Amino acid sequence: MVHRGIALILAMGLNKASAFASIPPQPTSSSCHRCLTSMLRPIVYSTDVYHPSSPGLMNMNNEPHHDGKGRKEYDTAKMAGETIPGEMKRLVVTSPGNGTSVADCIIKVQTVPIPSPKPGEVLIRVVAAPVNPSDYGGWYKSRGPSSSSYPMPMGIEGCGTVVSYGGFLGGITSSLRCPVGTNVGFVITDPAQGSYSEYVTVNAMTGAFPMPEDVPIEDCASFFVNPYTAVGIVDTARRAGSSKAIVHTAAASQLGQMLNRLAMAEGMEIINVVRRAEQREALEGLGAKHVIVTDDGQDDDPTAWKAELRAKVRDLGATCAFDAVSGDMTGHLLDCMPGRGIVYAYGVLAGKANGIDPLDLIYRRKELRGFLLTAWLREGGPMRMIPRMLTASSTVNSGLKVGGWCRSQFTDTTMEGAHAEIVKLLGSSITGKKLRIRFDGK
Ligand SMILES: NC(=O)c1ccc[n+]([C@@H]2O[C@H](COP(=O)([O-])OP(=O)(O)OC[C@H]3O[C@@H](n4cnc5c(N)ncnc54)[C@H](OP(=O)(O)O)[C@@H]3O)[C@@H](O)[C@H]2O)c1
Ligand SMILES: *[C@@H]1O[C@H](CO)[C@@H](O)[C@H](O)[C@H]1NC(C)=O
């Protein structure tokens, strides 16, 4: 058990239950010859050996092992029979275009060598990856048009299967957390890589998250950015002014739907603000009790919906708002919050914030703050971060199960189709259609 505990602490982001479930039973009987071989497998199956040029080695153990108690051991041999090609395809931005639109940036499929995992890293065959607002915003906005930042690899998170790992000692630790064959969600930490790739390497402890075994792995594509943000929002609202309700905008987003389901379980009220009447229906279908529509199709006058919002804020005791929209919404929200209320900007769907009345800040002591997932995770240093990650990942991993609170609604596409498809969705309505790039040909 000791090594599992160490893996757990090192991982800092690991859900106890899922980690334990995903680690195969370790051999316990040293008298079993076959199991002795399997104990050495982490060493045998290092990157050098795990290569198409030596398929014979891979297949020599191609039968299930047992742990001396009649349990079947994880079938790494089957995975090891898989051939890893030398090259892979990935998506890159080659130019930000005019720097103002997703449509104008130039995106290409690039063929590059498959990255080889360094010690402590795993190689993942990617199954699927989502296209998030934080992704496409960065394609044309966050990097200057300096030629050195292009071609820019795309995609922050994704999911897939561990097919190999690097190094000797690194191989042992990696194999405890996510042995070859484990289905994982992953987060990119190397800026030279992106999740819209057929293969990625990530740090086994901090970049790869074993997923629940009874969920199709492609449904774990959005396992990180949105679910952990939903957990972070509820936590932040509780601590800042012990809000009993949260105002949330663009509230029919995937994240907004997750937040409604999570809040119900956590005893928190969500005051949903959306821009279309259909979005009210979608949210009420999930059980949302408070939905305000900002556009009644008649005019641009915000007076009516703001009065409705003010009344909800007062009645439900909301002291904070989380705003994914920005633009004019920022000023409207500050206006509707009570004295000392806080508006957290966490998305820029409508561009730069407008309409802020400084009197709200000066005399009514209202605050405008930013919320960023990674900053929330790191808040208070490592001693706070470890328990926070443990709690969050256990909430998320149980929520990823079929019918769970952090499931997503996906629309599938290919690497070749992704750019045109996201432009089309952004030009119509993206609600309920999180774009998911499939790498498994499905
Ligand atoms: N700060 C952080 O750490 C963090 C982390 C995760 C997510 N986020 C943010 O969370 C937000 C939601 O992400 P998601 O992946 O859940 O998005 P999503 O599923 O793509 O949904 C986007 C939603 O926003 C609506 N929308 C788009 N532009 C709008 C506008 N100008 N005014 C009002 N509504 C608008 C869309 O409605 P239509 O159907 O009408 O277009 C849709 O319902 C994004 O802003 C994202 O950047 C931030
Ligand atoms: C940038 O390109 C997009 C799409 O091609 C276009 O709609 C937009 O007007 C352009 N903006 C500028 C500032 O040139």
Give a description of the structure.
- With 442 residues, the chain is an alpha/beta fold.
- The protein folds into two domains: 257 residues, Alpha-Beta Complex (Quinone Oxidoreductase, Chain A, domain 1), CATH 3.90.180.10; 152 residues, Rossmann fold (3-Layer(aba) Sandwich).
- It contains 17 helices and 16 strands.
- The strands form three sheets. Strands 3, 5, 6, 7, 8, 15 and 16 form a seven-stranded mixed beta sheet that branches. Strands 11-10-9-12-13-14 form a six-stranded parallel beta sheet, with helices on both faces.
- α14 links the parallel β13 and β14.
- α9 crosses α10 and α9 crosses α16.
- The radius of gyration is 24 Å and the shape is globular.
- The N terminus is likely disordered.
- It binds NADP nicotinamide-adenine-dinucleotide phosphate and 2-acetamido-2-deoxy-beta-D-glucopyranose.
- NADP nicotinamide-adenine-dinucleotide phosphate (NAP) binds next to α7, α9 and α10.
Could you tell me the strand content as a percent range?
Answer: 15-25%
Rounded to an integer in angstroms, the radius of gyration calculated over CA atoms is 24 Å
The fold-level CATH name of the largest domain is: Quinone Oxidoreductase, Chain A, domain 1
Bound molecules: NADP nicotinamide-adenine-dinucleotide phosphate, 2-acetamido-2-deoxy-beta-D-glucopyranose
Q: List the total number of helices.
A: 17
**What's the overall geometry?**
globular
* CATH architecture group name of the largest domain: Alpha-Beta Complex
Low-confidence stretches: 1-78
- The helix content, as a percent range, equals 25-40%
How is the biggest beta sheet arranged?
7 strands, mixed
Overall number of strands: 16
- The overall pLDDT, averaged over residues, is 82
CATH class of the largest domain reads Alpha Beta
